[in-house]
Write a structure and sequence with these properties.
The protein is mainly β. It is built from one helix and 29 strands. The protein has one domain (32-325): Methylamine Dehydrogenase, Chain H (7 Propeller).
């Protein structure tokens, strides 16, 4: 009787494990360059205004934040700004001279002189429970940027910003936000965060959740009407109609497979894309559907993917380096 009960259970378990082993992500070997920004310092993001000129930001949470600049394609970097107590999460330029950097504790900085000097934008009023929230992501929308952020998984915030204009028409979803994308000439925006995705059609004055849930959405990007997103639970998602509908193109983590965590996604065109994750995880696709894992021996966390030019992406790391793939 016991044999009759356990044999089918064992057999089905073997099938489950053997099936998962047959669906392993293929491994691809690619050459890359290592650009050293500041060894030992976590680099959260980079931004490139040209092939030669780039910026990077990072630091340690509740300790310090730094901004760096290169004028020789990343071969050498100079520290151009530093703050105490708070890290910096993202950096973005709307043209060659005007740029923004945001970080922990609602910090926002801007430059109007090609990153030579940075000024603190003093946000005079905000709800008390948001004063210590982190600003996580900057996304260019015309001559302004859309800022999103939050902390503790249940505090989300978003608003438009420019160095000569601050309109605190904030939205406060009940979920920490990590990124945003815009379609239809910036008429519609999607806010990605902890467990939910929100849509706004009025410059984030108002928002509503869409039917894309159950992952901690950590990264997103858009190329024309094609949108992509990734989650900390390992899922990858795609929209082919400017965000109206989303489908899962890579399953999230399962008990029977090795678990991995994704932090960022970037597509250089509608089909060619990259994902970066914890413990040295790099994924690449050439068709927007199937993914290969890039062979990489490092175990540092990979935090963001940014486009350097049409053919080059740069991945920031937790040990002070950028990985440049052509």
């Amino acid at each position: 009787m016991l044999k009759k009960f356990f044999l089918p259970l064992i057999y089905s378990s073997l099938l489950l494990f053997s099936g998962s082993s047959c669906n392993k992500t293929p491994v691809l070997s690619l050459n890359y360059n290592t650009l050293t920004v500041a060894l030992g310092i976590k680099i959260n993001n980079s931004f490139w205004t040209s092939q030669q000129i780039g910026y990077a930001c990072g630091g340690e949470r509740s300790s310090f934040g730094k901004i760096y600049k290169t004028i020789n394609a990343g071969q050498t970097w100079n520290e151009v700004y530093t703050i105490s107590d708070y890290t910096l999460y993202d950096i973005c330029f709307v043209n060659d001279s005007i740029g923004y950097c945001c970080g922990q504790n609602f910090k926002m900085y801007y430059t109007t002189n090609y990153g030579q000097t940075w000024k603190n934008y003093n946000i005079e009023w905000m709800p008390l429970n948001y004063q210590n929230s982190s600003l996580r992501s900057l996304r260019k929308t015309g001559n302004r940027v859309l800022v999103v952020g939050g902390d503790n998984f249940n505090i989300g915030i978003s608003f438009p910003f420019a160095y000569d204009f601050f309109d605190y028409r904030y939205s406060h979803p009940d979920a920490e936000l990590r990124g945003s994308v815009s379609f239809d000439n910036n008429k519609s925006s999607y806010l990605f965060g902890y467990g939910f995705v929100y849509k706004s059609t009025d410059t984030v004055k108002t928002y509503f959740p869409i039917n894309l849930t159950n992952d901690f959405f950590t990264g997103c990007c858009a190329i024309n009407s094609i949108g992509y997103a990734c989650g900390y639970d390992g899922g990858i998602y795609k929209s082919t109609n400017a965000g109206a509908n989303w489908e899962k193109i890579k399953n999230a983590n399962m008990i029977t497979k090795s678990r991995y965590h994704l932090n960022s996604i970037l597509f250089t065109d509608e089909l060619k894309g990259w994902c970066a994750g914890d413990e040295g995880l790099i994924l690449k696709t050439s068709d927007g559907k199937t993914w290969s894992q890039i062979e990489f021996s490092g175990k540092q966390n990979l935090i963001s993917v940014r486009k350097k030019n049409a053919n080059t992406v740069v991945i920031s790391t937790s040990n002070g380096e950028l990985l440049e793939f052509n």
